Structure of Integrase catalytic domain-containing protein:
Amino acid sequence: MASHMRAELVIDALTMAVATRGGHVDGVIFHADRGSQYTAAAFAQVCDGFGIRRSMGRVGSSYDNALAESFWQGLKRETMHQRLFMTMRQARLEILQWLTYYNARRRHSALNYLSPVEFEQQHLRAAKLAIAA
């Protein structure tokens, strides 16, 4: 989180995500809207460096980004609805707690009722088994 929407914000987030996966992001597609931070040359360069393919929705079409729109709607409804955070630190902490819950424990119907972490782990195990076979 930051008080700006510059490219370094999403570059830092992407770099942390890649590090979390041990640098192994082969075949990853990063889908975003056409915000200036995602269309920036610096962001494209970082994606290219990691071997990440970029994908962008059409201008003004929320349908191209339905899953992301659903995510943001849930985050806003469950953490920020009719709330005023006293400090940026408080907002960061509460949003981080929600993100941890969302990714590690919350079941998603689109993921066969697994959490995103469980889904990714299951996918990686299946890919390793396919390679071994």
Remarks:
- The helical segments are 7-20, 36-39, 41-50, 66-80, 88-104, 116-132.
